Amino acid sequence: MVQKKKIQVVSFQSLSATSGAGMARLGYMLSATLNNRGLLSNFIVHSKGKYDTPFKSVPVSFSSRFYLLALNKLVNTFNIPSYKFRLWQEMLFDWFCQWRIKKDTGILFTTNAFMHRTFKRAKKLGIIIVLLPGTPEENYIYELVSEENKRMGIKTIDAYTYDKRVAYFNKSVAYIDKVIGSLPTVYTSYTTANHSLEIIKILGHMTPDFKPATIVPKTTADSFHIGYIAHTVILKGLHYLLDAWKEISTNPQHGNITLHIGGSMDGAMQDYVDKHYAGLVNVIWEGHIADTASFMQKIDVLVVPSLIDGAPMTALEAAHNGVPCIITDHCGSSELLSRNESGCWVIPIRDKTAITERILYAYNNRETTRTVGMNAKQNIDRYSMQKFIDEVADYLEQHI
Fold it and tell me: Residue 1 pLDDT > 50, yes or no?
């Protein structure tokens, strides 16, 4: 009797006490579902610590916790750029992961594309490689950032524009058989890229485990609060929001609208903001936000002006708290929030006029704004991530 081949699930992120961080949450839920169907070989994560799972899970290396601590110390001591640190982690993960691939595996499912050694070994063993990326195609992002650098007259390098990391991606993607485009931006960017692989559309979102939210009824008070929160790099598009704010804040009729900007900022972007927006009024620079829910509860509208973003969790946090979003069509989260009765306003990227118009529309139509916020709340509450996981599992089961 021929033994049925199984599926190995791989996540670059690590396990937490009950699930996983980032895309590891998807890997955790998919592994549980595949295990219930008798299809899971194991779930490989970066580090696992003391946490156990109801299915077989292993760290990529039993030394991974120690080398990650050592790398962190090295980076902090010598002030090494984060994009180099990220590539070092990915290369180490790939080195160890190649030895975790089992010969009786039918499908290697991964949320991490930076594994050319692992993929090369898998292909030699006749294993089908399926990638479900959390971000759009890397070369697409690279070109977008390069264009923006030229527009702004600055030079920024991050994880998405580091030449060595993009080269590592291109070496890896050559071995991949199939890509699941779970977000419109991911699907589109991979279908237009020059890769010899199959693109499958299974729309779905990675929603976090939200704590219960207390929706604070917005009053009809004269004051109005706009929010933005992110670790700001060039791709987050903050400068387009600030360009819009220049026009809004200079009108005396809008003196009661306040912009709250939360989160840290990349060095090059901080210099650009300091140089071009130092005189802006009615702006509160919040800095690090320890409690995102509290931030959402004090604003009326969240603006997500990203040039490209897989699925910004801040938009889903806003929806969970009944706050509507002004969000670009290059953000994956806009697909979920605009379902049914739309809980967001979707605008083009790089469009300060559209941002201005939507902020002023929300300001002048408070009741509609509150309704859109509650639509967003309903869309996020109705959404079932498990249903999405089941669809992915169905696809993998059909192709094992």
Answer: no
